[in-house]
Specification:
- Keywords: S-adenosyl-L-methionine.
- Belongs to the SAM hydrolase / SAM-dependent halogenase family.
- Pfam families: SAM_HAT_C, SAM_HAT_N.
- The chain contains five helices and 14 strands.
- The chain is of the alpha+beta class.
- The chain folds into two domains: 146 residues, S-adenosyl-l-methionine hydroxide adenosyltransferase, N-terminal (Rossmann fold), CATH 3.40.50; 83 residues, Beta Barrel (Elongation Factor Tu (Ef-tu), domain 3), CATH 2.40.30.
- Strands 2-1-3-5-4-6-7 form a seven-stranded mixed sheet. The chain has a four-stranded antiparallel sheet with strand order 8-9-13-12. Strands 11-10-14 form a three-stranded antiparallel sheet, with no helix packed on it.
- Helix 1 runs parallel beside helix 4.
- The chain is elongated.
Length: 241
């Protein structure tokens, strides 16, 4: 399986162009859109979101990740092998949280280059061919070289990392073990915890532990982003009981 994680959005030719390359390189591998509206131009927020989403990927999957505001610059192209899954994309921090939380992680430089390499679309020209090569059972040594990598701290991100179509604001805070009385402060509002949306009145803001195990700010039958004025990157403060 090849999973796509990008900030491309659903419109335009970009996903289709990458899918064409993947179909040519690994025609027998299904391609799944894991997420294509990652925080635009924000590898740091996207890294925490990616780490929360990928534990359910089957072993031996390949994740093609493109959140790459530095495309065409000196930033390196990399591959990460973490817990028997491959991650292919830019070396800009996008895969750092995955690596930090993995039981086993090995980094590689992408040494292969295609005949055509644009300065603005490495997702199509470089990362997709490498991802397809790995997913199709190709020898990693033909396109990758091992690299040493510094350890990355496994820290949560006390900020909004994603806002969904309902206006719910996902944070980079893992929160399954917090007491029920824990509150969050954001946008100068102190928010109580609720277990479900229906536990609070319509229009009331609160936070809960979402299905990924992350703290998420929400409004019952409303938009937390609109009501609280939240955007990706806004800080979150945890108030212990």
């Amino acid at each position: 399986m090849i999973a796509l994680f990008t900030d491309f959005g659903p419109h335009g030719p970009y996903l289709g162009q990458m899918r064409l390359v993947l179909a040519g390189c690994a025609p027998d591998c299904p391609v799944v859109d894991l997420l294509n509206d990652a925080p635009a131009f924000d590898p740091t927020a996207s890294a925490h979101l990616l780490a929360a989403l990928t534990p359910d990927l089957p072993r031996a999957s390949v994740l093609l990740g493109v959140v790459d505001p530095g495309v065409g610059t000196h930033r390196a192209p990399v591959a990460l092998q973490a817990d028997d899954r491959w991650y292919v994309g830019p070396d800009n921090g996008l895969f750092d949280v995955v690596a930090a939380r993995a039981e086993q992680a090995s980094w590689y430089d992408i040494t292969w280059r295609p005949d055509r390499l644009s300065t603005s679309f490495h997702g199509r020209d470089l990362f997709a061919p490498v991802a397809g090569h790995l997913a199709g059972g190709g020898d990693p040594a033909q396109r990758l070289a091992p690299r040493a990598a510094a350890a990355v701290a496994d820290a949560d991100r006390a900020a909004v990392i994603y806002i969904d179509a309902y206006g719910n604001a996902m944070t980079g805070l893992r929160s399954r073990t917090w007491p029920a009385e824990t509150q969050l402060i954001t946008a100068d509002r102190r928010l109580p915890r609720a277990e479900t949306f229906g536990a609070v009145a319509p229009g009331e803001a609160f936070w809960y532990v979402n299905s990924l195990g992350l703290a998420e700010v929400a409004v019952n039958q409303g938009s937390a982003a609109d009501q609280l004025g939240l955007t990706v990157g806004d800080p979150i403060t945890v108030v212990d009981p």
